[in-house]
Design a protein that fits this description.
Layout (H helix, E strand, L loop, with lengths): L2 H7 L29 H26 L9
């Protein structure tokens, strides 16, 4: 038995070769509907919709109505 393992056996510190934080703490946090505020998800959805809207505007007004700045043909 190495000297480090023998000295740490009696202490409250974990052994050197163990992984800290892998044990189940038993801590469970309940998030209700009132506590959950998905602002980040809303921002991502709005950014996605802005990208889709700008692509639609480009395809409709520039490509299909022939108002200059054409990429296709």
């Amino acid at each position: 038995m190495p000297a480090d393992a023998a000295t740490q056996r009696g202490s409250s510190e974990p052994p050197v070769d163990s992984i800290v934080g892998t044990a189940d703490d038993g801590i469970v946090r309940q998030i209700g509907h009132d506590d959950f505020d998905p602002v980040g998800t809303l921002i991502l959805v709005v950014i996605y919709m802005i990208i889709l809207l700008s692509m639609w505007v480009f395809m409709y007004f520039i490509e299909f109505l022939g108002r200059g700045l054409t990429v296709v043909g």
